[in-house]
Amino acid sequence: PWGIAGVTMLWWGNHSDRSGERRWHVTAPLVCTASGLAMLAFTGTHVVSSLVALSLVAAGVLSGMSTFWSIPTAFLRGTAAAAGIAWINSIGNLGGHFGPDLIGRVRTATGSSAAAFLTLAALGMSGALVVALVTREVAPTSQE
Q: What is the DSSP string of 76-125?
C-alpha cells in the first residue's frame, strides 16, 4: 500500500501543479480514502480485498494531504498564512487526540470494527464535501 501511495502522491501532486486546480485534487483523494475505509468495513479476512482497500486509503490520504497544503497558502499571505496554517494544524491535532477515542467508543458500542471504519469513511466524506463546497478557486499564478 505505501509504495502505491507514494507513486500516486507524486503523480497527483504533479497533475495538480500542471493544471493549477486544487479543490478537486483534494476532494477526490478524500473520496478515495472514504471509499477504501468503507471497503475495509466489508472485506472481513479477505487479504487481497483488504490490501486493495488499504492501498486506496493510503493513496487518498497522502495525495490529498500533499495537495491540501497548497490551498491555504494560495490565498493567505504573511502573518495571515502563518496563523491560518497554525489554526489548521491545531484542528488536525484535535482530530489526532479525539479520533482514537471515538473509534474505541464506536467499537465498544457496536462490538464491530466495521462500524468504526464506516465512521471514519463518513468523516472522510464530510471532509470532501467541506472542501468541495467551501474552497474558493484561486487564479493560478504564473510559473517562472
A: --HHHHHHHHHHHHHHHHHHHHHHHHHHHHHHHHHS-HHHHHHHHHHHHH
The beta-carbon contacts of 35-40 under 8 Å, at least 24 apart in sequence, are 35/60, 35/121, 36/60, 37/117, 37/118, 37/120, 37/121, 37/124, 38/117, 38/118, 38/121, 40/117
pLDDT digit string, tens, across residues 68-85: 988 888 888 899 989 999
Contact 34, 124 (CB under 8 A): yes
Nearest to 39 by CA among 63, 61, 55: 55
Residue whose grid cell is 483488504 = 50
Q: What are phi and psi of 138, to 5 degrees?
A: -110, 135
> Can you give the pLDDT at residue 76?
86
H helix count then E strand count, the chain: 6, 0
Asked if residue 64 lies in contact with residue 15, where contact means CB atoms within 8 angstroms, the answer is: no
pLDDT over 90 (residue 142)? no
pLDDT for 26-67, tens place per residue?
A: 999 999 999 999 999 999 889 999 999 999 999 999 999 989
